[in-house]
Design goal:
Strand order of the largest sheet: 1-2-3-5-4
Strand content: 5-15%
Largest sheet: 5 strands, antiparallel
Number of domains: 2
Order of helices and strands: HEEEHHEEHHEEEEHHHHHH
Shape: globular
Number of helices: 11
Radius of gyration: 20 Å
CATH class of the largest domain: Mainly Alpha
CATH topology of the largest domain: Transferase(Phosphotransferase), domain 1
Number of strands: 9
Length: 342
C-alpha cells in the first residue's frame, strides 16, 4: 500500500472499528503478549490486514504499557516505504488491537534460514534498505533498538518492510532501558551508561555478519555468555568474508561510540560511503524497485499466507479482564498525521 491517498482513505474508513468488523483468519506469529492474525475487513473488499492482538493483563503484568503506547504513537507519526504502516488501533476489555499493513512475503528470518547465508550482493541489497530506514528514523530522533531477522518482512517484490516498534523510542540524547535481543544488544546497553542512536548501527553490524556468515558473531546457549562475549568484543571473521564487508562490520561493531560508523559527524553518510556500498545507487533503485530482489516470495495473491509458518490455534482460556486500565491505555488509540512524508 504505497499510495499516500489510499492509505489516508483506508485509515479514515477504519477509524472507530472493532474486532467484529473483521473476518479474522490464521495466526501469522506469536509473542509474549498475544498473537498476530491475518484478517480482512468486512466492508473493504480484498484488503488484507495483520491484526496484532495484545493481552492487556500481560502488558500490565510485564510493565510494558509505556512500550506499547510508544509503539503506536511512533507508528502514527512516521511514513516510509520500508516500514510497515499502522492503519488503526482499538481496544476492548481483554485486548489491545493494532491493525497493520499485511506484508505477504513472510518473515525475512525464514528466507535467511532457507538460504543458510546470503552472498555478498544479496546481503548488501538488504543492508542498504536498513541503512535508509535508520537514516529516516534517526532524522526524527527515533531509535529502533530491536533489529533482527524476525522483525523484517518481505513484500511481494522481495523488498524489506521493518515491523515491531515495541522497543522504539523518541530520544534526543540518551535513554537507559535495558532491552533488545541478546545476540544483538550493544555493549553500551549492557553497561547501563545510557544509549542512543548508536545502538541501531551496532545491530546493523550484527545483521550484516549474520546474513553473510549464517549466524551472529556472539552465540551462546546462555544469554550471560553472549553478554560476556559482547563486552569482550572479540569477533572471529571467516576467511571467505569479503574484505570490504569485514571492514564495514568492524567499523559498526566498535564499543567506542566516538569511532563507531553512524555515530560520527557524517552520520549515516559514513556507512553509505563505505567501500562495501561503492556500487550502491541509494535512492532510485529502492524507491522505483528497479533492482530485482535476491528472493522473490512465491505468492498466489494478496491474501496468501503460505509464506508464514503455520501456528496451531490457541488453546489458552481468554485472558482475565485488566483492572483499572482506562487511564493506562488512554494514549493507545491514536490519530494519524496524513501529511507525513512518504
Amino acid at each position: 500500500m504505497a499510495d499516500p491517498a489510499a492509505v489516508a482513505s483506508c485509515r479514515k474508513h477504519l477509524q472507530g472499528s472493532k474486532l467484529e468488523d473483521y473476518d479474522v483468519g490464521v495466526t501469522l506469529g506469536t509473542g509474549s503478549f498475544g498473537r498476530v492474525r491475518f484478517a480482512t475487513h468486512k466492508e473493504i473488499s480484498n484488503m488484507p490486514f495483520a491484526i496484532k492482538m495484545l493481552k492487556k493483563s500481560e502488558v500490565i503484568r510485564l510493565q510494558q504499557v509505556e512500550h506499547i503506547v510508544n509503539e503506536t504513537n511512533i507508528l502514527c507519526k512516521i511514513d516510509h516505504r520500508l516500514i510497515v504502516k499502522l492503519m488503526s488501533t482499538f481496544q476492548d476489555d481483554l485486548y489491545l488491537y493494532m491493525v497493520l499493513e499485511y506484508i505477504v512475503g513472510g518473515e525475512f528470518f525464514t528466507h535467511l534460514r532457507t538460504q543458510a547465508r546470503f552472498d555478498d550482493q544479496s546481503a548488501r541489497f538488504y543492508s542498504a534498505q536498513i541503512v535508509l530506514i535508520f537514516e529516516y528514523l534517526h532524522a526524527r530522533d527515533i531509535i529502533y533498538r530491536d533489529l533482527k531477522p524476525e522483525n523484517l518482512l518481505l513484500d511481494k517484490e522481495g523488498y524489506i518492510k521493518i515491523t515491531d516498534f515495541g522497543f522504539a523510542k523518541e530520544v534526543l540524547f540518551k535513554t537507559y532501558t535495558l532491552c533488545g535481543t541478546p545476540e544483538y544488544i550493544a555493549p553500551e546497553v549492557l553497561l547501563n551508561k545510557g544509549h542512543g542512536k548508536g545502538v541501531d548501527w551496532w545491530t546493523l553490524g550484527i545483521l550484516n555478519f549474520e546474513m553473510l556468515v549464517g549466524q551472529p558473531p556472539f552465540v551462546d546457549d546462555d544469554p550471560m555468555g553472549i553478554y560476556q562475549q559482547i563486552l569482550a568484543g572479540k569477533v572471529q571473521y571467516p576467511r571467505f568474508l569479503d574484505r570490504a564487508a569485514r571492514s564495514l562490520i568492524k567499523k559498526l561493531l566498535v564499543a567506542d561510540l566516538t569511532k563507531r560508523y553512524g555515530c560520527l559527524k557524517n552520520g549515516a553518510a559514513d556507512v553509505k560511503n563505505n567501500k562495501w556500498f561503492r556500487h550502491q545507487k541509494w535512492e532510485d533503485p529502492i524507491s522505483t524497485r528497479a533492482e530485482k530482489a535476491p528472493v522473490i516470495p512465491k505468492i498466489s495473491g494478496a491474501n496468501d499466507t503460505s509464506n508464514f509458518d503455520p501456528y496451531p490455534d490457541s488453546t489458552e482460556p481468554p485472558p482475565p479482564p485488566a483492572q483499572n486500565d482506562i487511564d493506562q491505555f488512554k494514549a493507545f488509540e491514536v490519530s494519524f498525521n496524513t501529511d507525513a512524508a512518504n
